[in-house]
Amino acid sequence: MIYILADDLGYGEVGYNGQKKIKTPELDAMAKAGMKFPAHYTGNAVCAPSRCSLMTGKHPGNAYIRANSKLYPNGQTPIPEDSETVAKLMQRAGYETALIGKWGLGGVLENVDNPVLNSGHPHKQGFDYFFGYADQRRAHKYYPDFLWRNTERVMLNNKANGADSDNDYSHDLMTEEAVTWITENKDKPMFLYLAYCIPHTEWRVPDLGEYADKDWPEEHFKIQAAMVSRMDRDIGRVKRLLEELGIADNTLIMFNSDNGTHALKGTREFFEATGGLKKSKRYVYEGGIRSPMFAYWPGKVPAGTTSDHISAFWDFLPTMAEFTGEPVNGPTDGISMLPTLLGLPEKQKQHKYLYWENYAGRPSAAVRMGNWKGVVPDFRYPEKIELYNLEGDELENQNVAKQHPEVMSQIKEIMAEAHTPSPLFDIKFDGFYNVEEACRINGVKVINPEEQKLKKQAEKKKRQLEAKKKKQSANKKK
Question: 29, 279, 354, 435: least buried by Cβ within 10 Å?
Fold first, then answer.
């Protein structure tokens, strides 16, 4: 099983959802040969809480991580060691497990001379193998000084590490790592979580490819398109590798994005990145949480189909439980999608509702109940609830709250039922995040932002100096 996750890829940034400017032929072909899910939703409107819902099978009202926790002094707030995760379930079912790419749910205390694993490290959450970024903030750089391989730093030949030029593009390294890992494990049951960073900014790519000569008004438009097409190319490479190894018919591939498009510097408008859906990343309107999902499994997932099944990231854990026969250890908010994936919609259970709460920017919440969508644009004013009928208003243009008091009553009841208080994330905390409590739980010293910045700068200088000495030493030997 291979689950591929893009980062900040909008619902409309792929050809199979109507994209015209960015070319995604590999994804388009797989979507056409598989099943599309236009009513599938991300775990949240920003990265870390979305990935937490994906891995732990809980919606944002119950999930441990509910925001990106920017003030945490060592990357992302780690999920507890006893969390149930998809990877742990797959391990129990006898699968080799690997995470390649961006994690963002804890991992390593990096700002120390001898890095220490914390409870969120992939090895403590069910992954046998890990290559990539533990800290999601570091994942914003495509030419970093190092990546992690398991618990060891892999130093890279980039300017950030003292090199004369940037040479090691992290996305390309992830693809090579995925190809190697799949090849080495082709004879075993395997679960690969391939969490690419594209197209999250910064805008960096080794070459502009087919977009180099485009008469587009801004250079970053070309870069974004080239990044997405590069990811598309490499996903096609993974697909063909499975075919060459003779395991394509035994491998389910699911493709998704962690949240809506970042919408920066006019990209949303230029590429029509949401496909017309309202808003973008950080908002719980459709443009922030609707996912460009498809499933591809030759001979198993019916080819050329589209499912209207309403589903979300927290369904992945119970889906893998039914897929493997290994039960979920603990509660889940999800429902297995396996009947739908296998073309048996009559056997598919349905959600009573889907629920989101989000603490990025303005704290907000949303409910989808059938075709009804309730949105609280700001949690601090819970009485201000908008209501949309997605059946005739997919773009959420007409707020019909006043016309449907009985539906509004149901939405309010669901919001009260779905929200479990969190010790870390709430509107009562500064920045909606209790950094002091997060640090206390994890035995980490609270560091003010300026001190944290200085520590990171000192650590970076130290690594650059060490790399420079190694380079000078190597030159002398020559």
Answer: 29
Classified as helix, coil or strand, 367 is strand
Nearest in space to 46 (alpha carbons), one of 7, 93, 78: 7
Q: What letter does residue 227 receive in the DSSP assignment?
A: H
190 within 8 A of 179, measured Cβ to Cβ: no
254 near 295, Cβ under 8 Å?
yes
C-alpha span between 181 and 190 (Å, rounded): 10
| Of residues 200, 143, 193, 199, the one with CA closest to residue 173 | 143
- CA–CA separation, 93 vs 88, rounded Å? 9
Q: State both tokens at 327.
A: 């039960």
Taking alpha carbons only, the member of 196, 174, 180, 279 closest to residue 3 is 196
Which pTM was predicted? 0.93
- Which pLDDT score is estimated for 465? 77
Residue pair 124/100 in contact (Cβ under 8 Å)? The answer is no
Predicted pLDDT of residue 451: 62
pLDDT score for 455: 61
Decide if 256 contacts 293 (C-beta within 8 A).
yes
Q: Which residue in the block uniquely carries the two structure tokens 């890829």?
A: 9
Query: What is the four-CA torsion angle of 253, 278, 311, 420, rounded to 10 degrees?
Result: 120
How many whole angstroms separate alpha carbon 432 and alpha carbon 184? 44
> What are the structure tokens assigned to 272, written together?
């029509």
List the strands of the sheet with 305-306, edge to edge.
152-155, 146-149, 129-133, 96-102, 190-195, 2-6, 253-257, 293-296, 35-37, 305-306
pLDDT at 66: 97
- Kindly state the tokens that stand for 83: 């969390």
Ordered mean pLDDT values, 10 residues apiece, the chain (478 residues): 98 98 98 98 98 98 94 88 98 98 88 76 97 93 96 94 96 98 98 98 97 97 98 98 98 98 98 98 98 98 98 98 98 98 98 97 96 96 96 97 98 97 95 94 78 64 73 69
Phi, psi (deg, nearest 5) at residue 379: -55, -25
- Residue for token pair 């970093």: 144
